[in-house]
Structures are given as structure tokens and as C-alpha cells.
TrEMBL record, chains A, B:
Family recorded in the similarity comment: Belongs to the class-II aminoacyl-tRNA synthetase family. Type 1 subfamily.
GO molecular function: aspartate-tRNA ligase activity; ATP binding; nucleic acid binding
Lineage start: Eukaryota, Metazoa, Chordata, Craniata, Vertebrata
UniProt name for this protein: Aspartyl-tRNA synthetase 2, mitochondrial
Ligase listed as a keyword: yes
One Pfam family hit: tRNA-synt_2
Organism superkingdom: Eukaryota
Record gene name: dars2
Species in which this protein is naturally found: Callorhinchus milii
């Protein structure tokens, strides 16, 4: 332990404290905060309250001749000639002094390790003729250092910072504080902050929404299998971390708040689902005296208002399709509309054709034959590897598919070639919209299964085509899409005789279908709506049930739930609940799609790994039995389990 | 179950949906969102996206003659003549039609229960001459109803809404959604939202702070006895809900984020401490390349910028006193400076006086005699009840006190009367600043104990005086105060030979005391600072240790902590950590003091009770052993414990 080492550092801190106000006299400590604010706005707000006079990234030719003080990290050093200094705002080249009189200063700067933190004072000068770097926004100038100080030296890092991006994600998460220094993560987090701020301005300042914080220590919801539990000091009693503020936002409407929003932390324990985080953030919105179209308009305005300029223009209104159309044309309720390859119904072609296995399928109740046409499929698709992918994709559907390759010479390669007449062949191509060079994929069965299989194949074939260089989707396009008219109830998984809510039990039925609620609830559409971006669900909401009797009927008679657990909500609905509805946007996903990140982990400062672990601090971790006894719980090790601390 | 009942309601919803856009033609659905935004800004943004054309509270004489559509709650009905309709924005009087042709409309409005939700369309008219209500902002006008619709009827509530405020707090929390309709809670929550929005504008838009969300499922901190645990699916492994984002914000600085803020949800399990909530919110701020004075300036500007106009002007800069001064003059580290009654040292008076018990105390090492002078104490204080209070207050200090009543006739009532000479008496009055009519309270012992006892008595006497009508503190004053130069370490509770951090182990030592770190760490002051408002701590922060070796020394050598648990932080400090510091403001407390609420529960939408219960939903609650088995835990009932579900 080296005492003088940090004693001298403490002294430096003391000295550095005198640099708080910019040395160029622009701001005096005696000025009051109003003046400071005006000044901050006028000058670009980057220098306030800190040692530096400028950020590294803001210097330009206009600053030539000025004396500046900068703070930052040593990004790069070339021999004994210059250092590249980095801060959050960018890079700047620092020229080391070559005079004999500055030998000590030069030595300090030459000895310092990369990623050490220094402050330098010097003069902005023009780079010598012909040496400007057009790839660097500060490339016209450099700073000739006059004095410098090492604020903190860095150990030799286990890898170079700029290499970290190429390292495994586990290593990046273990050293997340180094990963955060990358320009990509800096950009992602700053863009996130900026977009959220714009959303707040739109909701709070322009539309009178009230930002209300709701509790995260709450009661377990009926059937809340994915809710984390939090033991309390009352024996056997647990809080639950809610999956969304759904109940609270409805209660706020009953309480007359009129317009609520919150950037809400939510929790979902899904074990190890890929690209899910145990905690996530949603833009949570609820309004009274409103209908579906109004909420959609509000959200379109919200996205437009918060959309970053550098990502192009958003066109309003967003297109809208029904759930039935989405399933029929794309085989999925969150279609990627950046490309075609829609599902088409070709049942009529095969109704009388001599293809027994397809005719048999059509003979079943609701039986259909449907297809997608893969453009240029003959040229680009269907290597052995492609087959392997495709089989993997459709396997979960247990669905047989038939292929027709429309070869350039006009002939077919398919088991159907000899079974169809020429007229039937051209009729099939017409119905399916297939052209020479395409591959036609057909499947038969009930519509839901056929659509689901073709929907997955559509996406898989798009990925394969793109991997082979076909320009199919515009990766700079942002295709927002509303999906509406979802079913209110779905057959329960595992027990299809019973119904469960397609979304949640508070969703209001579609007014046109209300007459079916008592007789055929499975046919009732809901007032639920999803917002989809490039094939990803980024939001969902609904008009809620505001009538106590209807809510009670749905819970007790349709869903067979124990209404006692939601008694407070039923009582609230019966106490003057206004008509209301809302929406929640998945912020992590929206930002990831906006910046083009492949994972939401790239837009979260400290994400968890696949298995829900924090690889930096090694959470979750063991807790002593004594500490657990406060909460009246003990660990029950599962039989045959071993310790498992290394995997992530 | 009455089918037609809600079927007809659903139809009404459908009808109501056509009211979405204001009927007065000001806005057409075809307009794009940019136009809407401009319009929203121009018109005051209260009518958008909803059925209504105006809010109840915004109508004035200028609207006379206009047809308006309003939505709201039936607040009050007088015979068959009028209804008072309420929404979040205020109250408006609705005149019922008396014509025979409108008999059905009249009947609907006469039959409706209080707190039902209705929409009415009618014409704004002037109130008859002499009938204007000057106590109502809409009191010059009323609305003559032309059509109306019941959107939702309310059951007969267990109490009248306006009476709820007089009910027990338990009842208010059980029916929180009704309590939220009160104008006071509406004001509190809206002011909170407004102030937080202004803070965000100041930090984000004016000063370049980045809003970063940090995880709440984290690793247990060493000695984190007040952290809730969250079982994970890994047997025996637990997350912890952090008490603050302290580690994360420092890691963000190491990651080069430069300026971080977050309106952060924090968790603290303190059992049943009064006026604490298991979850609370802090404005969390951290900056790089900064010193203490800069952060204080930043925060002063933040408070000024976000301060609500209706609460008067804030004067900057805030006064600042050292911890030592605060303890010496007020006996507490969060002084209420709205009144005097400061502690004075009167040791010199008694050094030679013939008062043996005081002279003996002065003979002890560090022994002192100190006093406070209670103005008008002779007139207003010291009934039997006052004595009881005072004894209760000082009892925890185990401190004897002596009283001197300076009676109007110039005589003393005190055990000291006969022990002091006239000269000593007047010297005591001079030293203590006591006047005729005051009561002087004296105590002797070591300075810490004496100050602590007098500090408590000072506050208690102020409360007693105010309860008797003496105007002591200005309850419209907002006395902000910095307390600085706290000790870095304190003797450990229960083991005074060892040291513990006065705040947390990441606090940097005061540069002037750095030389004492190895020799006399107990004498080192810190770079910690507290922000105090009217005697309440509303924030605290510090310059942090950015040097790995110093941090390691503090943790291992001074505090005897297991550094292994903070290895990730030590590694981060050794990887190029910039000098940094920050602060956290307790938002709940700040808002409560701003609005003058007696409890933070009045500025939280859904607070927990004293015992941490949600009285509306009855959380925490039992969870089945099957559900707990996912998390490999089981409940261990404490011996002799019974069920306890009713208390709160």
C-alpha cells in the first residue's frame, strides 16, 4: 500500500477544484443561476459545472487560437508525437511538446497508459497543410498542449477498448463499464434519453398527461405465473413485482386523473427466453373519455414527435389491418410489411384437380390450400442448408409442404408437375402471383395451421434470400402498422373447451360483436390494438371494460376466475368509472429497432444475460439463512441439484 | 345477471365514439398530427383526443353562447334544478331543463346517483343577475343542458366523497381511487408531475444530462440489511432490490457517460418506521470532472427552475453551514432555520459558580453547559402536558435538564435562583440571549449529548408554542440550507472501537484532511453534502473516491469489509475512472414539503400503510407452496406466530 500515491492525488483534486469555472472568464461563480441558464442555452451547455472549457468533440477551425482545457481518456498515442483524447462528445488530436523545456510534461504524457484519464490545457491550432483528416469531425485542427495532469491512470486492460465490440457478449457484459465507452453504446443510450424526453414533452407539455408513479411492490395477480415474488416481514406473505401497471392505471382513471402516463419499470420472469429481460420499460398511457381511434392518433403523433431526425421521416397515419387480414396474408399477427410474399389462397385450383392429398385436405371441414411465392427462389434458395433451415422452421407446425420450382425454361420441378394440367398450372401461378424463376410453397390443412406454417416460411425465406445478397427488405425503412380487431378470447392452451383472454380480462368487446357475448363469446372481437414495427410488436392497448357487471361476467362466467382477487377493481368500476382506454409501448424494443440494434441488450445500460444474470456483479447470488430468516423463508434445494454458478 | 343492461351500455359506447372530435368544427379528423400539435398548443391542450369540447373548469364568461360537450362526475344535485359537474379541471353548474318536452332528459338526470359519470351537451349562459358565485372560478356562468347521457352509474358509496378527507387514513387508502378525486390529491399529483418535468427539462435539455435507467434486480450489497430479496429460479440465489443506484451511477461515469440522471425507484425495507415507504423515488444525479461547489450550484439552479410559481420565489445561493456548526447551534444535522432558539454555550458562567452539579459536569473531559432560550416560555409553556411531552422527548438522551423561568417581575423561578449571584444571573442571561418572559433550558455533559438533547427540546418547544398560537415559524417559508463537511467515518454503533462510513464507503475525504487518512481517520471530514429544507433532509451527495487504491484502503483497512463483494467496482476504478460526484434528492419528501402535506403518503398515488401494506388490494398476500417451489423456497413460520392479516 502506497500512501504517498493517493495523497498526491488528493492534492491534485484540491488543485483541480479551482478549475471549476471556465478559465476564459466567460462565467463567474458569482453569477446567479438564471444567468447561467441563459448562458448554457446560448453556448451549447456542454461546459457547465465542470473543469473543462470545451468538450473534445466540439472543437472546430473556428476555435483556432483559443486556449482550451479538455478532460478525457487517452484513446491512442503515436510515438512521442501526439495523443488522441476522447470524451463522450468525440475525439481530438493533442500535440505533445517537443521543446527541451517541456521534457517533464512530455514524459508524463508518453508514460501514461491507454484509457487513463487526463486533463490538458493548450492552444487550438490548424493542422499543417495537407494533414487534415476528413474522417474526423475535429480533423482540421489539433491542440498544442501547454500543461497536463493525470487525473487517474488505468491499469493495462485485459483487451483494447476498441476491440471489445469484437469480443464475446459475455466479456462485454462482464466489463460493461468499458463497453459503455464505445461510440455505439454512447449513441444508443443518448438517443434513448433524447427520445424519451421528447415523448414526455409531447405527453406532459402538449397534451396535459400527468406522470404518475405506481407501486412495484404489489399483490400477486390471479394466474400471475411470471411474476417475481418478494417476501415481506409478515410470515408467509409476499409482494409481487407487477408485469405492468394495468390495474393502477385503470384505478387512476376511476380516480379522475383523466390522462396518465409513466415510463414504467415492469418485471417478467420468463426463465431463459432469448432477448427478454427480467425487467423492462414501457411507455404506459391511459386516458378517460376516449375511443380506439383517438388513442391511435395520439400514439402516431407521439412517435412522429419523438422520432430522431437522422432516421428520416415518419408518414402518418400508420396503415391498419385487422387481425384476420394479418393472419390470412402474413400468417402472423405482427407482419413485416417491408416485403411482399403474401400468403394466397389457392384452394379453388385444387378443388377439382387430380391431386388426391390436396383434394383430401380440402374435403376436411375448413380445409384450405395456401401458398407463398418466393421471388428468385430458383436462383437463390434451396441448397441443402436451406432445406435444413426450412424443415427446422416448419417442424413445430407438424405441417407438410409442397414445392414448385418455376424453372427459367418454363418447366416445373415439383411432385405436382405430372398431376396438374397445363391449365391448372397456369391457374395456380396466376392465383399465387408466381413468375418464372420463383419457388412456390404450398401447404394444405385448416387455415390457422396453414397460415402459421407459411408465415414462418415467409420470414425464413426472406432471411435466406438476404443472406445471399438479394435486396428484399429496406433496412432503413420503418414500417409502422396497426393490427386491430383481435379476438377477445382464445381457446385455453391445454384445455381448448375453455376460453382465456387473448390479452387480458379488462379488454372491452368490439361494440359490433357485443350481442354475441352471452351466446358465442369465442366469436367476439375485442377493442384491442397492437402497434407493429418491421414485424415486431412494439405496443399494445385496448379500450377497457368500464362497466362492473360486464367485467364481473367476463371474469366469472367466461373465464371462471376467482373474482375475489379482483374485488377492489370491481368495486372501483362500480364507483363511477369513466370510459377509458390506453396503450403500452415497449421502449427497449422500439429503441433497438430505431437504432438498428440486433438485441435490446444494446440499448440497456446494464442488461442481464440470457439466463437473467448480471455478469458484472454476479447477481443473483447466495444469501445467508440468517438474512432470509427476516423474511421467514428458507431455501429448498431441488433433489439432485448441484451448484451452478458459472454458466450464464 | 342482466344482459340488456350492459348491452345497451355497449351501444352507448359505440354512439359515444362518434364524439371523438370536437363537434364545433375546430378540428377535423383529417388533420395531421403537426396541425393537431400546433392547435393543442394554441388552444390549451385540454380537449384533444376525447369526447368533450371543454373541461368543466375552463369555462368562463367568454364562452357564453357556445355549445359545449362536457364529461364528468355528478358532484352535487339540488332538487330538480341543477347539477354540479366535476372533472379534473374544476366544477361547473348544469341547469336541468324544466320544459315538459324534456321530461325524459330531466328524469334521467334527477335519478342518477352522485359520483356517476355523465356527458352533457348544452349552451353556456350567464347566471341570472345577482346569482354569480364569486367562490367558484366558473361562478359567472352555467350550462343549460340540451342532451345528456349516463356513461356509468355509481353505486351508493359507503360515504360521501367530500367527506373522505375527514375519514381515517385506513379508509382513505382502502378506497384510494375515491380519495384521488379530491382536489387536494389531484393538485399534489399534478404538481409532482409538473415539477419533475421541469427538472427533466433543466437536466436533459439545458445541461446535457443523459437519462439512464439502471437495474432494480441487482446483487445484494455487503451489509445491505434493509434490502428486499427476490428469489430467482436458480436454487438458493437471490436478487436484491437496491436502496439506490449508487454503484450503477459510478459505473456510468467510468463508462464515460459524463452526466447521468434518473428519476430512480429505490427500495428500503425498514419494517414499520413511520412515514417511510418500502419504495420511494429519488432524483439521482452524477457528473464527471466536477467538484462539490459545482454540484451545489447545479442543484440550486434545478430547484429554482422547477419551483412552482404559486409557492413564491427561491433565493439563491442557498446558505451553507458545516456539520460542526449545525450540531453546535441546532443539535441536529438538518436544522430548521425558520426560527432561532439556537443553542448557546454557557460553560464559562458556571466554571466558578457555586453550582456543584454543573461544576462537576464541567470538570469531566470535554464537559460543557449549554442552553436554549424559549421566547415567551413563561407565558405559553410548561403546563403539566408540556412537561410530559418534554420528558418524553429528552428521555432517549438520558439527559438531565434545568429550567430557569424569567418571570415578568424580574425574579427567577429555578433551582438555580439561590445558587447564583446577581452578576452570574445577568451573565447567564447575556450569554444565552434570554430576556424577561423567556424560559431558559440548561443541560450539562459532553457536547454531543448536550447538543442532541437541546436540539430535540428546541423543536419540541417550537411545536408547543405554535400549538398555543405563537407565530414562530413562517409556514409559507422555504428555508433551503446546505450542510457540509460531515465526518467521513463514525464510531460503529454497538462497537465504538471500530469505524463505519458516516454515509457510504464511496465518499471521498476532504482534501484538507487527506493527510489524516492513515493516522486518524476518525478526524477526517468528507466531501459529503446534505440539502435541508425546513429541518428535513431532502438530499445528500458527495464527491466519490475515484482512485482504486484509496477505495481499497477505505474498504479493507478502515472499514474491514470483504472487498471481494465489490471487486467489480474496484476493477472499474482501476480502468480509467474520471473524478466524479453526485447527489440524490428525495422526491417524495421534497414534494410533500412543497405542497405542505403532513405525510409523503399525500404525494404518492398508491402509498403503503405504516406496516407496508397496500390496503386496497391487501398486499402482501399468501402465495401457494407450488408457486414458491419455482423459486426453491419455502415458508418457515416463526414459532408461536399466528395469522395476522387484519392489522395495518
Amino acid at each position: 500500500y502506497n500512501r504517498t500515491f493517493w495523497d498526491s492525488k488528493l492534492e491534485r483534486q484540491q488543485v483541480a477544484a479551482q478549475f471549476v469555472w471556465p478559465a476564459d472568464g466567460r462565467v463567474q461563480p458569482a453569477q446567479d443561476s438564471k444567468q447561467l441558464l441563459n448562458h448554457a442555452v446560448a453556448t451549447g451547455k456542454k461546459v457547465f459545472f465542470v473543469f473543462r472549457t470545451h468538450t473534445c468533440g466540439e472543437l472546430r477551425a473556428v476555435h483556432i487560437g483559443q486556449e482550451v482545457t479538455l478532460c478525457g481518456w487517452v484513446q491512442y498515442r503515436r510515438q512521442d508525437l501526439f495523443i488522441v483524447l476522447r470524451d463522450f462528445d468525440g475525439l481530438i488530436q493533442i500535440i505533445l511538446p517537443q521543446e527541451e523545456t517541456a521534457a517533464q510534461l512530455k514524459k508524463i504524457l508518453c508514460d501514461i497508459s491507454l484509457e487513463s484519464v487526463i486533463t490538458v490545457t493548450g492552444t487550438v491550432i490548424s493542422r499543417p497543410s495537407g494533414q487534415a483528416n476528413p474522417n474526423m469531425v475535429t480533423g482540421e485542427i489539433e491542440v498544442r498542449v501547454q500543461s497536463a495532469e493525470v487525473l487517474n491512470s488505468s491499469r493495462k486492460l485485459p483487451f483494447e477498448t476498441k476491440e471489445l465490440v469484437k469480443k464475446s457478449e459475455a466479456l462485454r457484459m462482464r466489463y460493461r463499464y468499458l463497453d459503455l465507452r464505445s461510440s455505439q453504446l454512447q449513441y444508443n443510450l443518448r438517443l434513448r434519453s433524447r427520445m424519451v424526453m421528447r415523448m414526455r414533452e409531447y405527453l406532459c407539455n402538449l397534451h396535459g398527461f400527468v406522470d404518475v408513479e405506481t407501486p412495484t411492490l404489489f399483490k400477486r395477480t390471479p394466474g400471475g405465473a411470471k411474476e417475481f415474488v418478494v417476501p415481506s416481514r409478515e410470515p408467509g406473505k409476499f409482494y409481487s413485482l407487477p408485469q405492468s401497471p394495468q390495474q393502477f392505471k385503470q384505478l387512476l382513471m376511476v380516480g379522475g386523473l383523466d390522462r396518465y402516463f409513466q415510463v414504467a419499470r415492469c418485471y417478467r420472469d420468463e426463465g431463459s427466453k432469448p432477448d427478454r429481460q427480467p425487467e423492462f420499460t414501457q411507455i404506459d398511457i391511459e386516458m378517460s373519455f376516449v375511443n380506439q381511434a383517438s388513442i391511435q392518433k395520439l400514439i402516431e403523433g407521439l412517435i412522429e414527435y419523438s422520432w430522431p431526425e437522422e432516421k428520416g421521416t415518419i408518414t402518418l397515419p400508420f396503415p391498419s389491418i385487422t387481425y384476420a387480414e394479418a393472419m390470412g396474408s402474413y400468417g402472423v399477427d405482427k407482419p413485416d410489411t417491408r416485403f411482399g410474399m403474401k400468403i394466397t389462397d389457392v384452394s379453388e385450383v385444387f378443388r377439382d384437380a387430380d391431386v388426391s392429398f390436396l383434394r383430401d385436405a380440402l374435403g376436411q371441414p375448413c380445409g384450405v390450400v395456401r401458398s407463398i411465392s418466393v421471388p428468385k427462389g430458383n436462383q437463390y434458395i434451396f441448397t441443402i442448408e436451406d432445406w435444413f433451415f426450412i424443415v427446422t422452421v416448419i417442424n413445430p407446425c407438424q405441417q407438410d409442404v409442397t414445392f414448385v420450382t418455376l424453372q427459367p425454361d418454363g418447366t416445373w420441378k415439383s411432385v405436382l408437375t405430372k398431376l396438374l394440367t397445363d391449365g391448372e398450372k397456369s391457374e395456380l401461378c396466376r392465383a399465387a402471383g408466381a413468375r418464372v424463376g420463383d419457388v412456390l410453397i404450398l401447404t394444405a390443412g385448416d387455415p390457422n395451421t396453414a397460415n402459421a406454417a407459411l408465415g414462418k416460411l415467409r420470414l425464413e425465406c426472406a432471411t435466406i434470400l438476404e443472406s445471399k445478397g438479394v435486396a428484399l427488405r429496406d433496412h432503413n425503412a420503418f414500417n409502422f402498422l396497426w393490427v386491430v380487431d383481435f379476438p377477445l378470447f382464445l381457446p385455453k392452451e391445454g384445455n381448448p373447451e375453455e376460453l382465456e383472454s387473448a390479452h387480458h380480462p379488462f379488454t372491452a368487446p368490439h361494440p359490433e360483436d357485443a350481442y354475441l357475448m352471452c351466446t358465442e363469446p369465442q366469436k367476439v372481437r375485442s377493442q384491442h390494438y397492437d402497434l407493429v414495427l418491421n414485424g415486431n410488436e412494439i405496443g399494445g392497448g385496448s379500450i377497457r371494460i368500464h362497466d362492473m357487471e360486464l367485467q364481473h361476467y367476463v371474469l366469472e362466467t367466461v373465464l371462471k376466475e376467482d373474482t375475489g382477487l379482483l374485488l377492489h377493481l370491481l368495486e372501483a368500476l362500480d364507483s363511477g368509472a369513466p370510459p377509458h382506454g390506453g396503450i403500452a409501448l415497449g421502449l427497449d424494443r422500439l429503441i433497438a429497432l430505431t437504432v438498428g440494434a440486433s438485441s435490446i441488450r444494446d440499448v440497456i445500460a446494464f442488461p442481464k444475460s440470457f439466463r437473467g444474470r448480471d455478469l458484472m456483479s454476479n447477481a443473483p447470488d447466495l444469501v445467508s439463512p440468517e438474512e432470509l430468516s427476516t423474511y421467514h423463508i428458507q431455501v429448498s434445494q431441488p433433489a439432485g441439484s448441484g451448484e451452478d454458478t458459472t454458466q450464464s
